[in-house]
Design a protein that fits this description.
By secondary structure, this protein is of the alpha/beta class. It has eight helices and six strands.
Amino acid sequence: MASGIEKRLESLTRKALYDYEMIEGPLKIAIALSGGKDSLTLLYMLKKIKGRGFPDFSLEAIHVAGEFSCGAGISSQFLNQVCQSLEVPLHIITTSHESKECYSCSRDRRAHLFKKAKELGAKTIAFGHHRDDSIQTLLMNLLHKGEFAANLPRVPMVHYGVIIIRPLILASEDEIITFSKEKGYLRLACQCPIGQNSLRRQVKDLLEDIEVLYPNAKTNLAKAGLTYGSRKALEP
């Protein structure tokens, strides 16, 4: 029987998929599987939901491995075990990252991911970004560029010929952590030496301080980001 937190996350995932029209017709979805709690939770939820109130889409998991893991530093053996238990094919791409900057590294990893997804016939790619990721992005864009823009639930990447979806966009990180502990998905911390003191990490700490004064800060920022945030990313 599903636990309370599992039912909660499934409900939030279904709401995001429906409200933001992430799934249209029968299709194949590739999951960006870093091996961290977020992407593993996403994998579990999409597998559980497929064919139940939504089209019976097929799933492909893609893991981009490299010198540093921008995730949980999980072994390929563990990922294989999880994917086999859920009956989802896993594809592992091993690549090197010359750049030591988060943005450049992320861009390179995405390029490999998009290429593999299209080879598999999957033009829709699901990322495990959750509500807190979106809030951090909102503050980073606002304070660094003067732009009020959070993560968007669905983004057509016109130049790459793929669509990014974020089915966990309504779920908080705390909810995902609780679920991950329950399922044994919560493993190691980020292994990237740059990411330990990245701007995103500092913004995450800043948000914790802000919530001391404004307990509903994260909830309100997430709502504002989805309601009033810039849609510039949707422009070709």
